[in-house]
């Protein structure tokens, strides 16, 4: 019961205080002033967004992809590159199974994967430039 009395006192005090506060009326150009401040801070942005993946990393990824495609198109097996040279005297305790010996990739499939990947990169570049233009124009 004592809690309700305390709440009623606070409620009466709040109502009395609200009645004493004068109502503020914003100026007629309040909205335009706010919009001016927003556009000013947008043009003088402190934070400049940077891409998650830099241009150098994209170039590195594209060159690695190209090297891998050229390497596979030459017909070398993956296991041939993983073999340990004979000049070492020790014998490894593990051996790779012949899982990849039977896999063969046709040239058509290789070219299709290459051009599909190339078109994805072109599409990403076009979307990025389009969204950057839309972002900068607003």
Describe the structure in brief:
With 138 residues, the chain is an all-alpha fold. The protein has 5 helices and no strands. It has helices at residues 2-20, 30-43, 55-73, 78-82, 107-137.
Note the main attributes of this structure:
mainly alpha; 5 helices; 138 residues; single chain; elongated
Give your account of this protein's structure.
The protein is mainly α and 138 residues long. Helices cover 64% and strands 0% of the residues. The protein is built from 5 helices and no strands. It has helices spanning 2-20, 30-43, 55-73, 78-82, 107-137. The two termini are 59 Å apart.
Tally of helical segments: 5
Percent of sequence in beta strands: under 5%
Radius of gyration: 34 Å
Largest sheet: none
How widely separated are the two ends? 59 Å
How many β strands by DSSP? 0
Task: Determine the fraction of residues in helical runs and give it as a percent range.
Answer: 55-70%
Shape summary: elongated
Low-confidence stretches: none
Q: What sequence of helices (H) and strands (E) makes up the elements?
A: HHHHH
């Amino acid at each position: 019961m004592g809690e309700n009395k305390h709440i009623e006192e606070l409620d009466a005090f709040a109502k009395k205080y609200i009645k004493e506060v004068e109502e503020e009326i914003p100026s007629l150009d309040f909205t335009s002033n706010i919009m001016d401040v927003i556009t000013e801070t947008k043009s003088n942005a402190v934070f400049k967004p940077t891409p998650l993946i830099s241009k150098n990393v994209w170039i590195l990824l594209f060159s690695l992809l190209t090297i891998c495609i050229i390497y596979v198109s030459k017909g070398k097996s993956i296991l041939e590159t993983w073999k340990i040279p004979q000049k070492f005297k020790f014998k490894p305790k593990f051996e790779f199974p012949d899982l990849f010996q039977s896999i063969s990739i046709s040239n058509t499939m290789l070219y299709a994967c290459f051009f599909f990947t190339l078109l994805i990169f072109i599409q990403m570049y076009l979307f990025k430039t389009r969204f950057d233009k839309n972002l900068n124009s607003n």
